[in-house]
Write a sequence for this structure.
């Protein structure tokens, strides 16, 4: 069901009010909130999983070996099976386009796509299993023989993720196009629970391959969980179908192939980073990068799903009708501004409070204070580029909605070479944090380039207007980060109950709250329309909740 603007709707009992032109309706906000809540639960469980891994394995060769082994299976799971990945985006884009209902049976062509993709990825699975030793040596040539041996074993265990990732991604795209958002957003929760369960049951044994088995079991459960809903909605079932010449299969393929290559090139940068990290002595940098990346990717994943999951079907509808391109331009401004407003304060906190964040998240068991310092330096560098990462992702999805996968493909290809060059230079200049700084630089260049190409495609995007709002917002972010960092550095010496963990939690929370407060005051003073609109929606929701509580209280008195 859709409203007049073409947004997905979720019916609720609340009263709807008028919405300013160019801003999302409350139905879209409801979808974003629903997705954000489900994603927050999944990411929260993912954080618990990672904290448990840190306590069991620390940053030694066992976890570094998992990092090496997980490069390709994880790359495929994120690339093909992830929400907002190319499989997901291509399926949503084609399903949301207006087709002839008499000839377009989604179940038939979705089953054909699944069969085609499954055959191809089965070959990839077998290749990973047979060539495990060669793959891990190629991934991390500078790692020790111990790491290579452990990684090869774990790669063989996780090889089926190649097949499962494609099936998961196709299913998620179909469900989102049918306006079912919760199950895809909760799906990573299943994987985290599998890892946590195995570690709690057998972590005391110290077997290095436990994480790999947990990841595999979780991926199987993710796929099985979505199958019943797909069948019920008429979106296909797990069976072979070879109608590969249908118009819908060709349309998905034409969009999916360049999108997979383009997004794959983005993720290849992770491989490039780990390639250079393997040459840092000590066999710890690969694992440390994984710990720092999780602390960045957890909030990024939540925000990405909030922004992209409800807007991607809308982008596809608006892009398919040239008469609605003026609205598309406004939606582009809206999504970019909201993304900046949400990511800048988080980026500020990761830079200013990196050390207490890592300490609270990981420092226990085999994860020592020395490792905390190493991971915190990486986290600060990743935090600097956090906003560019998600803003670039928004622009890439707009190109997919325009059924243009070639432009992101070309830019991503050049970005790989730039990333390798910056890794080489920055690693020499800054040590391990230079790898994260290189990633930030590459994302910034890609963001600017994509924006220029999008301007050529869609004339009239209000870039100057956005820039006049973003420049002072960046200044406010810097001031807020400076306040948070200053407070933490002056309060950290005041130990609470002799507990370093309690001290870090309390004083960093206070520093974060004051920094966020300064950011909010400064951002509201700029009178950015998106900021005012979001605040209005929060006030309306709060008033509704308060009214509901008052009514319930009055009933209880009666």
């Amino acid at each position: 069901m859709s409203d007049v603007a073409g947004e997905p709707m979720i019916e609720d009992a609340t009263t709807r009010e008028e919405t300013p032109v160019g801003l999302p309706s409350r139905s879209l906000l409801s979808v974003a909130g629903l997705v954000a809540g489900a994603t927050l639960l999944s990411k929260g469980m993912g954080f618990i999983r990672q904290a448990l891994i840190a306590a069991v394995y620390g940053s030694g060769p066992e976890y570094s070996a998992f990092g090496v082994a997980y490069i390709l299976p994880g790359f495929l799971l994120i690339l093909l099976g992830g929400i907002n990945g190319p499989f997901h985006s291509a399926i949503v884009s084609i399903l949301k386009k207006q087709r002839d209902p008499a000839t377009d049976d989604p179940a038939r062509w979705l089953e054909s796509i699944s069969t085609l993709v499954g055959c191809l990825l089965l070959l990839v699975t077998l290749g990973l299993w047979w060539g495990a030793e060669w793959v891990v040596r190629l991934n991390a040539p500078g790692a020790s023989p111990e790491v290579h041996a452990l990684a090869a074993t774990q790669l063989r265990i996780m090889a089926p993720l190649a097949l499962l990732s494609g099936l998961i991604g196709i299913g998620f795209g179909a469900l989102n196009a049918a306006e079912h958002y919760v199950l895809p957003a909760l799906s990573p929760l299943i994987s985290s629970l599998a890892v946590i369960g195995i570690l709690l049951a057998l972590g005391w044994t110290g077997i290095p391959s436990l994480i790999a088995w947990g990841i595999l079991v979780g991926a199987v459960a993710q796929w099985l969980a979505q199958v019943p809903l797909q069948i019920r909605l008429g979106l296909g079932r797990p069976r072979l179908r070879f109608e590969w010449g249908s118009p819908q299969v060709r349309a998905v393929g034409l969009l999916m192939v360049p999108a997979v290559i383009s997004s794959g090139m983005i993720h290849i940068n992770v491989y490039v980073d780990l390639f250079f990290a393997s040459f840092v002595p000590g066999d710890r940098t690969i694992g440390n990068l994984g710990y720092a990346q999780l602390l960045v990717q957890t909030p990024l994943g939540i925000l990405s799903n909030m922004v992209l999951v409800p807007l991607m079907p809308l982008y596809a509808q608006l892009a398919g009708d040239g008469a609605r391109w003026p609205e598309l331009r406004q939606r582009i401004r809206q999504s970019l501004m909201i993304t900046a407003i949400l990511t800048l304060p988080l980026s500020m906190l990761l830079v200013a409070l990196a050390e207490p964040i890592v300490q609270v998240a990981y420092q226990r068991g085999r994860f020592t204070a020395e490792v905390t310092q190493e991971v915190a330096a990486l986290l600060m560098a990743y935090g600097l580029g956090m906003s560019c990462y998600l803003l670039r992702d928004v622009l890439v999805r707009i190109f997919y909605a325009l059924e243009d996968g070639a432009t992101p493909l070309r830019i991503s290809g050049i970005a790989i070479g730039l990333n390798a060059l910056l890794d080489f230079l920055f690693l020499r200049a800054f040590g391990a944090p230079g790898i994260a700084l290189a990633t930030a630089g590459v994302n910034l260049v890609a963001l600017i380039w994509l924006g220029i190409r999008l301007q050529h495609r869609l004339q009239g995007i209000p870039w100057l207007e956005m820039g006049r709002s973003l420049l002072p917002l960046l200044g406010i972010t810097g001031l807020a980060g400076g306040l948070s960092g200053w407070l933490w550095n002056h309060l950290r010496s005041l130990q609470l109950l002799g507990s370093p963990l309690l001290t870090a939690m309390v004083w960093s929370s206070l520093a974060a709250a004051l920094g966020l407060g300064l950011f909010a005051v400064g951002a509201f003073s700029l009178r950015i329309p998106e900021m005012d609109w979001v605040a209005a929606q929060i006030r309306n929701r709060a008033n509704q909740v308060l009214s509901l509580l008052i009514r319930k209280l009055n009933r209880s008195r009666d």
